[in-house]
Design a protein that fits this description.
The chain is mainly α. It contains ten helices and two strands, in the order αααββααααααα. It folds into two domains: 63 residues, Arc Repressor Mutant, subunit A; 142 residues, Four Helix Bundle (Hemerythrin (Met), subunit A). A two-stranded antiparallel ribbon has the order 1-2. β1 and β2 form a beta hairpin. α9 runs antiparallel to α10. It is globular. It starts with 10 loop residues before the first helix and ends with a helix.
Length: 221
């Protein structure tokens, strides 16, 4: 596996970036082991570099060390999920009410995320759909215009993707959200900020309820 060179990033940062992207795209799921020797070979990196990358992801809440098992992709708890949605409500509402207007309309990055989600839905690729839907919400937070918030929210997206990965039937879990993402997008294009904020509040309330219900069912044999 090759790592795209990224200006200003150390090799450990680059490895962490690639692993984070694998989580966001559903290639690494909750509970999967991250075997150090395999990562060393896959990234042509030293053990110290890989360990530093895993340490970075651990600080972000994406990995967890288990005694006698090593590092695994983290499983989120009910409290973790509730906290994620507290963050999402704060940032996504702020972005809608005070962020830049969606001036690029049907040709911008937000539209691209919606289009990619629609194509994934048509192909019934629900893993990809979940990732593209989250990218759409990243673009909403991007309206704030803060690189620091953008970087922070990327971690929130990765943690949300770990919640999705626990669904036994991702089709039924993901299918209802496309229409609601489209609706949010249309409200943002029309600059109907209050309506969009209200729709986002309802969206996140329902999404949190669904996520918590999913975790309770996964925890029940």
């Amino acid at each position: 596996m090759s790592i795209a060179q990224q200006s200003g990033l150390s090799l450990a940062d680059q490895v962490a970036h690639e692993l984070r992207e694998d989580i966001i795209h559903g290639r690494l799921l909750s509970g999967m082991p991250l075997v150090e020797s395999e990562l060393v070979r896959g990234y042509s990196a030293s053990r110290n570099t890989v360990r530093e990358a895993l340490h970075l992801l651990g600080r972000e809440g994406l990995t967890h060390y288990v005694r006698h098992k090593g590092v695994i992709v983290r499983r989120l708890s009910v409290d973790d999920v509730r906290d994620l949605f507290r963050v999402r409500r704060t940032l996504e509402s702020s972005a809608i009410l005070t962020g830049a207007p969606v001036v690029s309309g049907m040709s911008g990055p937000m539209a691209n995320a919606i289009e990619a989600a629609e194509l994934a839905c048509e192909r019934e690729d629900w893993r990809a759909f979940g990732s593209h839907s989250l990218r759409f919400h990243q673009q909403i937070v991007g309206l704030i215009g803060s690189p620091a918030f953008d970087e922070f929210f990327t971690n929130i997206v990765a943690q949300m993707r770990l919640v999705f990965s626990t669904a036994r039937d991702e089709a039924s879990y993901q299918a209802p959200w496309l229409a609601r993402d489209r609706h949010l997008f249309q409200l943002l294009i029309e600059n109907r900020r209050r309506d969009a904020d209200e729709a986002m509040g309802s969206y996140l309330n329902d999404s949190e309820h669904q996520a918590l219900d999913l975790l309770s069912r996964v925890a029940t044999p």
